[in-house]
Amino acid sequence: MDLPSLLQVTISPVNPNLQPDETLVLNVVVQSSATHGITLLKWNSPLDERAGKLGIFFARDQATGSFLEGVVIMANRLMPPKPEDVIHLEPNGKVEERVELPGLKFGKGKTYELQGKWRWMSAWRGELQNHLELLDKPEQASSPECLTNKVDVHVA
After folding, report:
1. In sequence order, what are the beta bridge partners of 62?
2. 98 and 117 Cβ atoms separated by less than 8 Å
3. Phi/psi of residue 116, each to 5°?
4. How do residues 93-121 score in pLDDT, each as one tens digit?
5. Positive/negative CA dihedral, 14, 68, 42, 89
6. DSSP string, 89-156
7. Global pTM exceeds 0.85
8. d(CA 137, CA 22)
C-alpha cells in the first residue's frame, strides 16, 4: 500500500476573519490511519518549517476565481537531511503544526478559498533508528499529488 495514502492532512485558519494587512496562519494536522508507524521527510510538505513560502498553499478569490500571488522561494537542501527534517508518526498518530503564509495581499471584503497541494518526498514504514538510515531505505521515494481540505477565509 502507498504509505502517503494512509495520511490525511487537514488545514484550518487560526483566524478565519482577517484584516486586509493581517498574515494568515493555518493549523495543519497530519493524521495517520496506519496500524504501523510512518516516518516522513518533511521537506516541501505542509510540515516543512518553510511551508508558507514554498508555494504549497494557495488562495483563490471566490468571486473572481483568480489566485493570489504569494511569496514563493526555492529551497536548496543539503544532504543528508538533519534529524529535525524527519518526523515519525505512531500508529494512528497525528502531528500538528502552525504555518504562516506571508505576502498574500488580501482584498477588503472578499472571501478566499485556501488549499494545500504537494508531494511527500519520502515516507517509510516504521521508525528509523537513525535519520541517516533514510539514505539507505528509499521505500517511498515520492508520492502521488496530495491535497488538503479546502477552507474559507473572510477579509473584513
Report:
1. none
2. no
3. -110, 145
4. 999 999 999 988 899 999 999 999 998 88
5. positive
6. E-TT-EEEEEEEETT--PPTT-EEEEEEEE--S-EEES--SSGGGGGT--S-S--S-EE---EEEEE-
7. yes
8. 43
